[in-house]
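User: Let's play a game. I give you a shape written as tokens, and you guess the letters that built it. Ready? Here's round one.
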């Protein structure tokens, strides 16, 4: 097949050039939470896209700008919307990096640097895939639009409003995202949804200051105990959430979803080792069901009183607990927040409930034709059958495509499982980078063929 021979040869010949283009983007800081280098990175990305022949502009939001691009062949043709983000996490702690985080370095067949895997390496693999396809065939068989945001690492706080405002501009037939990590087995992974998330804080305050635990013991109420008592009313020992209505809007997995979960590879010892929990004891079906089809109720921070070295005998004046709650389709984060607030009001109205942020869950059906087309293309590219997972355990702003634009969305990670995103020594295996370029070409080709066959019916 011409595609295979042409694409492989171009990627091989341009290997050094493509790496240098990625390194140029990696060297540019773009830390969204600290507003460092964002404008400069957006400008750089715009120039790189224009060099590929993509009509590109920088569009303002209330926060950091969106880099939008398009290459339209014919408005009647199939349109693919590619999403990614150019912002990165802060590099701290710097001392744990083996090489400077913004000086990309290759060691042991891996590219090390902040953003290598999340998400600049995967974003560039898509752009360079476009470049490779155009060089091989002269043009694209479909329309492609691009939206690269600068706030994903802040929770994509302005993306939904941007998409809502620009629905006509972003109109497409499919959204394709390269983000996240591949399956631990090394097989290509297709994700058809994400869990949503709700973050909140519970705070209890009693005295105006910390007091002597002897002189005021049995006199003052301890706010830490108040929070502990409240938490026991919110979650049972079996892990089930006890808040009224918490589970009532969950969409049950389809027959196809259940089939896909059973097909997912599972090695409990390997997973336990890779997550640092060798005592993991669970079968594969339970593991994947809990990871993708069930909500969570997690304490991610608990603070009260003296937490430093040595003894300090006090009754603290304040206690705080922070929660992140992963939600599954069709749970609504704001509905769950209201139910939690009502629960607190009933059990202890003196405790303050603070909303910190949220993201809705999303799901695309595995049964639709376009998913089958992309799955086949990925299999041809990797010469290996991809794993299809109905949902990611984590959260991405996937709902803006499925809910606001009303179109299917496919997430195909181009990064290795152990990329260490958000941590020191973030990395991207060279093979994953170049395979991502090749995979993008195969997906474009398959969508072009699908578009022709569909229009001829």
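Assistant: Ready! My guess for every position:
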């Amino acid at each position: 097949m011409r595609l295979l021979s042409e694409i492989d040869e171009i990627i091989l010949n341009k290997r050094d050039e493509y790496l240098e283009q990625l390194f140029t983007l990696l060297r540019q800081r773009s830390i969204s939470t600290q507003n460092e280098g964002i404008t400069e990175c957006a400008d750089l990305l715009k120039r790189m896209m224009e060099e590929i022949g993509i009509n590109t502009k920088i569009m303002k939001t209330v926060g950091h700008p969106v880099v939008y691009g398009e290459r339209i062949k014919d408005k009647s043709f199939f349109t693919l919307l590619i999403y990614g983000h150019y912002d990165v996490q802060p590099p701290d702690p710097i001392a744990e990096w083996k090489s400077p985080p913004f000086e990309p370095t290759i060691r042991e067949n891996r590219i090390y640097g902040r953003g290598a895997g999340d998400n600049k390496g995967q974003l560039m693999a898509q752009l360079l895939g476009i470049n490779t396809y155009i060089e091989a065939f002269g043009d694209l068989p479909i329309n492609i639009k691009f939206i690269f945001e600068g706030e994903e690492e802040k929770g994509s706080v302005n993306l939904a409003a941007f998409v809502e405002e620009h629905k006509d501009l972003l109109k497409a037939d499919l959204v394709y995202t390269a983000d996240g990590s591949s399956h631990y087995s090394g097989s290509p992974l297709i994700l058809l949804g994400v869990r949503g998330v709700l973050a909140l804080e519970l705070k209890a305050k009693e005295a105006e200051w910390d007091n002597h635990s002897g002189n005021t013991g049995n006199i003052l109420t301890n706010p830490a105990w108040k929070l502990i008592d409240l938490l026991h009313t919110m979650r049972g020992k079996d892990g089930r959430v006890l808040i009224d209505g918490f589970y009532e809007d969950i969409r049950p997995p389809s027959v196809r979803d259940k089939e896909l979960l059973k097909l997912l590879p599972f090695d409990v010892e390997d997973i336990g080792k890779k997550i640092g929990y060798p005592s993991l004891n669970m079968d594969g079906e339970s593991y994947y069901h809990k990871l993708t089809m069930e909500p969570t109720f997690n304490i991610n921070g608990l603070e009260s009183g003296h937490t430093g070295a040595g003894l300090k005998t006090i009754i603290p004046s304040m206690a705080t607990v922070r929660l992140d709650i992963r939600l599954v389709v069709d749970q609504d984060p704001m509905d769950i927040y209201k139910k939690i607030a009502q629960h607190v009001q009933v059990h202890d109205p003196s405790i303050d409930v603070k909303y910190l942020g949220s993201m809705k869950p999303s799901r695309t059906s595995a049964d639709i034709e376009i998913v089958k087309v992309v799955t086949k293309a990925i299999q041809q590219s990797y010469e290996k059958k991809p794993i299809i997972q109905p949902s990611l355990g984590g959260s991405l702003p996937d709902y803006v495509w499925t809910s606001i634009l009303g179109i299917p969305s496919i997430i195909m990670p181009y990064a290795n499982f152990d990329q260490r995103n958000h941590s020191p020594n973030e990395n991207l295996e060279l093979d994953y980078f170049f395979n991502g370029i090749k995979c993008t070409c195969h997906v474009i080709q398959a969508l072009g063929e699908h578009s022709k066959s569909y229009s001829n019916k």
